[in-house]
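Replying to the earlier thread about multi-chain prediction with a worked example.

Input:
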Amino acid sequence: MLKSKVAVLTAYQKPLEVREYEVDDTLGAGEALARVEMAGICGTDVHLWKGELPIPVPVILGHESAGRIERLGPGLEKDWSGQPLAVGDRVVWASSIVCGECYYCRIKRTPTRCLKRKAYGISYCCDEAPHLRGGYSEWILLRAGSSIFKLPDVLPFESIVGAGCALNTALQGIERIGVEMGDTVVVQGAGPVGLAALAVAKTVVVGGPAHRLKMALEFGADAVVSLEEYGTVEARRKAVFDAVGEYGADVVLECVGHPSAVPEGFELCRDGGKYLVLGQYANAGNVEFNPHIITKKQLTVMGSWAFEPRHVQGAVDFLARSAKWRDLPGR
Amino acid sequence: MLKSKVAVLTAYQKPLEVREYEVDDTLGAGEALARVEMAGICGTDVHLWKGELPIPVPVILGHESAGRIERLGPGLEKDWSGQPLAVGDRVVWASSIVCGECYYCRIKRTPTRCLKRKAYGISYCCDEAPHLRGGYSEWILLRAGSSIFKLPDVLPFESIVGAGCALNTALQGIERIGVEMGDTVVVQGAGPVGLAALAVAKTVVVGGPAHRLKMALEFGADAVVSLEEYGTVEARRKAVFDAVGEYGADVVLECVGHPSAVPEGFELCRDGGKYLVLGQYANAGNVEFNPHIITKKQLTVMGSWAFEPRHVQGAVDFLARSAKWRDLPGR
Amino acid sequence: MLKSKVAVLTAYQKPLEVREYEVDDTLGAGEALARVEMAGICGTDVHLWKGELPIPVPVILGHESAGRIERLGPGLEKDWSGQPLAVGDRVVWASSIVCGECYYCRIKRTPTRCLKRKAYGISYCCDEAPHLRGGYSEWILLRAGSSIFKLPDVLPFESIVGAGCALNTALQGIERIGVEMGDTVVVQGAGPVGLAALAVAKTVVVGGPAHRLKMALEFGADAVVSLEEYGTVEARRKAVFDAVGEYGADVVLECVGHPSAVPEGFELCRDGGKYLVLGQYANAGNVEFNPHIITKKQLTVMGSWAFEPRHVQGAVDFLARSAKWRDLPGR
Amino acid sequence: MLKSKVAVLTAYQKPLEVREYEVDDTLGAGEALARVEMAGICGTDVHLWKGELPIPVPVILGHESAGRIERLGPGLEKDWSGQPLAVGDRVVWASSIVCGECYYCRIKRTPTRCLKRKAYGISYCCDEAPHLRGGYSEWILLRAGSSIFKLPDVLPFESIVGAGCALNTALQGIERIGVEMGDTVVVQGAGPVGLAALAVAKTVVVGGPAHRLKMALEFGADAVVSLEEYGTVEARRKAVFDAVGEYGADVVLECVGHPSAVPEGFELCRDGGKYLVLGQYANAGNVEFNPHIITKKQLTVMGSWAFEPRHVQGAVDFLARSAKWRDLPGR
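Result:
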């Protein structure tokens, strides 16, 4: 019988442990078995490892992964977008599955907040059969109802895994906050989400380190503001205003994750501006802020949590079009 | 020559001082002289008195006032809505005047954040002629460009001053946040802004004291949650969820002014809900909050600052229609 | 074996024919058998009968019906909103089922335009087993995936079937066009959709005959304009403008179905107003109009097709709350 | 005294007549005298000449013009955006002036439909002093309240007049209809408005003649569909669907002006798509259409009339950034 080596988080803040499971390849209706070809380490994996979001342990981490279809269960003949699916196809899958039936899925149409949402590499205790529900594994068993996307030939695994859930998350966030033609945009953060946001908007990037900012300029940033060079909130605010104009930015996208980025970001918006809280995926604790600034500046502040399958489709399409994201060495 | 007694704030946190000025009734083009018939004390007046918003002193306070036209300057023949204006007319005026030319007025169409906005009863040092730019005065001199509204006969001064800037402010805030058919709404605060918000939406009111909550029920609240009865954030959250349903409110309107209301309010929203920061008009300091909640709950948080003249028109129309607001004794 | 009498449209514009089918009550997973207690005749049924929308014949008509659960297939334990479902429960069901997988369901989140949408009483040829897929029948077999809604005790069959798909359709239409606080609204049409739109908005109703307009006033219309009394477009336009003000209505809801209502309705909008094309469910042919009016008046014109299950839930909730709709004799 | 040669439309469909007026250069407060350096012939000028929009005659046509400040009236020291203004400055001016006080300007914030709007080159009978209110003239007298924009040094007159009111109009239209990230866009029309729309969106252009379509590709169109090559509505629809995908376009921008473009354009939209009626500036008569398509396809159809001064500012900024629009020979 086929066996799969896996990397398991057995307890928060402990080294991952390599285990081996037997692969139960008797697939039910709609299920699939995939060979994992590549898996990414996301900033969220670091938060998960630290224990900043409550997840079951032991768990096979890995929610940004891609691979090849090895076997398809009865009735699974098409990918999410309706293309035919076959053994051997190169695919990526949305990390999460929603119930489609709860208050948030049905009444409020907000499936990213589904009351029963489960994500590969995050929500499945690997003590329970069939075990293989994370990407840090040679093989993954995809549940019925998974959103599977066939990869265009032009799109290497490096590209889709390199963009990872960052690009999907940025797509949903930018959809939610809205970016209008002519808006000036500031991106806080030069990590993967920040760079992804950049790829679809005109921007100033506030972040670091230097090689990230260099990459941001290559990706089309109009200006960058280095956290190393501008060591205070006030210095960064001034540098941003020099770049976007004297009243501040129309839209600021927070892609940092540290709570202190939020009150700093409010300062970067113009009156009436929009602020997207995209990076606070993990619970990294409290921060002080002055709510008067929200009233006085008439800010619109929005959160965005993860993404829906249609954002994965958007990411696949975007990457297939964009030579820059495909070919950049070292992503 | 006509003289006017006025109540002046000479220094923060000092008793108002009664002074007397001569009334310079030689009016320029577009100016008006009005006899003040009634003036309200707004929560903002308390903040101003404490020094929580920077204003010049000495100042004649009073930004919620109404009266009768005594004299009209050349060319001032119509009110804001185009009705003929004559000596003796009962009128109210928008407290603020904007420049119409700055970045916020022109490019971003956000006149409440006009860079040169000045408000009667707030922005004018009364040492400077013509002195009479506040409502705590027998007479007020209205500048050219003031938005003056003729009062319908059915609308007594008690009603328009009683509703005050609270109703105008609530109208702009509700317009900004948007309330959709079928939304559950929670109002935080049972002061004038909270009651005004109530008048135009279906709601649960969280506030006090008891006589305010009684009034809230008379105004149509579906439920009230007393700060005195429910002494903790968690107890109030539970009481609100009992009233609006197990996931929380679609929309929460903060009409309190204390910074701690804001993180409490985030807890009252459902995932994907909307939160209006309407009450933080004054700078009452910092509060701790956890930005993770904005990302995770996908909240939309909006501020709203003051109002435009069209909201005063809306308030006049609303009050003229609404027997409840006209006739309530003791407002 | 149980038998069911049914009313069948065998050919367009022919009298319905009464047939009898055996009831195959061996239910698959998620299926249900219901006793039809009441079924409505919708304006759309008239269009279907005339052949104005392409449907298969022979067909058991009836897409507005309600009844009692007689038997539940394996796994069907809850209604759409998550309430427990049992034999004997009084229920209504959404007429249509969507695939959840096509371009419109997935990418564009517009399930009312699902490429594989099928509706009870409309889309099922009754020659094919299990035959009983329409409401003009003693028994109906509900497919797996049907949206079933338990009726609150206060809600009689008369009320939910009387409101019919008109109320659901009005709810989706009003959601799409948006009605803002303070908007003046004109409803074109005093049929069921028009009256339903009225129930959730402030309005002037343009329609007839007299007993419909009387009902419109009882339902809360601010004014009515009779097609019989005002025989020309220009006369009606004048009557509407007298009621809503000299520039026309902020929002006009077309609930008529005759093509000529559309160019007439454009005339009723103010510049910058919104016009909802809700009534043109059937293809009733062409009409002349002048597109210059859309540019010049800067109109927003929206269509809305049918409804989603969440609108049925909204209708059930609305009717349960609204004594007026429950108790009106003769609906 | 200075004299100005002017080109006058004395009667519809007659050749323009050259006249000469004396220039009254005694400027009132806020007025300006400008030397016209360049003036464009807009498609609207053709409609005006035909008499398709009611304007006074005789009139000096020319609403797309630019020039140099020759003299500034008292108090006119800054341009619309707040930059200092001086004699000799190269400037463009918004063609229209609004009252800022009427129902549309104030309550509905729709100044392009101002009840007292007047436009240079359109609304001023040149028999009335000071005569020089159109761009087909050596000199133009700009009224107080005109929106004047200083041209960046990099921006030649050819560019700003070449883009003309087409670009401003496209900016307002695209703002109104909204174009979201990832939307497919079809532009109907390859005239100046169509090309301008193209410059700010990803598109397929349907139009002609061939040299226009060649220009469209140079401006970044993803595909073009030639009216000459595809002679029927159905052939064009198929060509467009081949380019944007099997369901049609998310957004279609009508920039044609012929009424028949509108029903054809409805066919090009996907279900739930958006259709902008931008080109029907003149009254070119009626067309037949089937309103059923708006309901069934759940279309959003919007008109957009002319532009506000902030769109002129947007156009100046856009052109200054865009080498393509500055340098294209032959525009």
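The radius of gyration of chain A is 21 Å.

Feel free to reuse this layout for your own posts.
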